[in-house]
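Support request from a user on the community tier.

User writes: "When I paste my structure tokens into the form, the page sometimes reloads and wipes my input. The last time it worked, I copied everything first. Here is what I submitted, just in case something in the input itself triggers the reload:"
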């Protein structure tokens, strides 16, 4: 299997994991506020990352390298992305969030074209539009409510940060390994959300965390989110972005929608309608087309 196919496989698996992660986040937030959850999640991530380094399973060589780039990466993802997305979810409906999330591949494609000169061709743009239509279609069956301008702006900001994160990884992958980028961004993320949790809870921070840890569902969710998602999925995304152009990696974001709905159907017994089936078909067709119609001269990192 060549690097291009490995990059595509890595992106597909990563975004599938991201899709399932929404279910675990929802279960964890039955027992803790988002900031507390993120603090605990990234604590698990930091412990596991350092265990991999100490056990010499993964190599970490940051000596003599500037940390400015990786720390800028951490600012966009996970810090700004998670803060903006959480507030966006708070002030908009689920269906609206699903429709706004469809701009992620477009942001990534535009930024990739402007910053990295990785320009999708006409057929790829059409396939991106097909996938987006699938995301919007699957959103039609979700719950309604009020949408605010603040919520919309927060969501747009979050998905822009996610797209720019992809650009930064693509550029930084020339000087840093996927593991090194993942390590720095989550060390920074943990420090930020630990401070934020303390600001939010004050002297009760320890009690709040211990109360949450008293629930097996919360512990299982945090272990999955902190290990499988934060380390596994982000390592795969960073690996993918080092090998295939941003637009081709970002289109796999539709896998998140697909697997989030499937996990809801299987675990939460949510209904699966013909609308969902049609939406998934459109998303899969779009993802296949973006990669099928890539220019043969397209540079792979």
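"...and here is what came back when it finally went through:"
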């Amino acid at each position: 299997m060549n690097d291009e196919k490995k990059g595509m496989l890595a992106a597909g698996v990563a975004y599938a994991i991201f899709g399932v992660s929404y279910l675990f986040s929802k279960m964890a937030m039955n027992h803790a506020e988002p900031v507390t959850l993120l603090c605990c999640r990234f604590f698990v991530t930091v412990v596991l990352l350092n265990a991999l380094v100490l056990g010499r399973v993964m190599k970490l060589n940051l000596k003599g390298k500037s940390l400015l780039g990786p720390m800028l990466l951490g600012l966009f993802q996970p810090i700004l992305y998670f803060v903006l997305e959480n507030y966006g979810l708070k002030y908009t409906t689920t269906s609206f969030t699903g429709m706004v999330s469809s701009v992620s591949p477009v942001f990534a494609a535009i930024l990739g074209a402007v910053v990295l000169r990785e320009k999708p061709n006409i057929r790829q743009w059409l396939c991106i539009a097909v996938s987006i239509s699938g995301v919007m279609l699957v959103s039609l069956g979700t719950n309604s409510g009020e949408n605010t301008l603040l919520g919309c702006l927060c969501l747009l900001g979050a998905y822009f940060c996610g797209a720019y994160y992809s650009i930064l990884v693509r550029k930084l992958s020339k000087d840093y390994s996927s593991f090194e980028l993942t390590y720095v961004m989550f060390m920074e993320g943990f420090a930020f959300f630990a401070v934020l949790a303390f600001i939010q809870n004050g002297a009760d921070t320890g009690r709040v965390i211990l109360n949450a840890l008293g629930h097996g569902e919360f512990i299982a969710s945090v272990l999955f989110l902190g290990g499988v998602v934060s380390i596994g999925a982000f390592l795969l995304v960073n690996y993918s972005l080092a090998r295939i152009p941003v637009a081709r990696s970002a289109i796999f974001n539709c896998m998140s929608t697909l697997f989030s709905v499937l996990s809801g159907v299987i675990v939460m017994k949510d209904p699966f309608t013909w609308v969902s089936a049609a939406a998934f078909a459109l998303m899969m067709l779009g993802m296949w087309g973006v990669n099928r119609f890539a220019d043969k001269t397209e540079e792979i990192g």
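Agent notes: The reload is a front-end session timeout and is unrelated to the input. The chain is about 75% helix and 0% strand. The CA atoms of residues 106 and 127 lie 11 Å apart. Escalated to web team.
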